[in-house]
Amino acid sequence: MSQQLTYSSKINKIRTFALILVFAGIITMYGGILTKNIEWLMVIFFILGTLMVILSCAVYVWIGTLSLRAVPVICPSCEKPTKMLGRVDACMHCKQPLTMDKNLEGIEFDEKYNSRKYKKK
Hints:
single chain; 121 residues; mainly alpha; two-stranded antiparallel ribbon; 4 strands; elongated; UPF0295 protein OB0906; cell membrane; membrane; UPF0295
């Protein structure tokens, strides 16, 4: 039984991280409401929750600027427009590995191809 590897695009990974931060911040602040009898603990929960939500906003702004600089391409598998960050990425829709580097065509997909160490080789 062969294992099918599933890749996801970098933009979607970062957006998912920011969304998790929003929900984690809200849940943390809800924990502050549950501990309202212990005032100092409630304040800590609210501050941590607020910082998480603010950090998620910063991540969303950052990924928005990255998304504007990403190269738009048409996926050869699903023929939908997607964006690529780096030398290798995955389609946002069908998870198909993509590359714009002719040297990497036909080679097994690996995210290490985006690292600076690999580019120097």
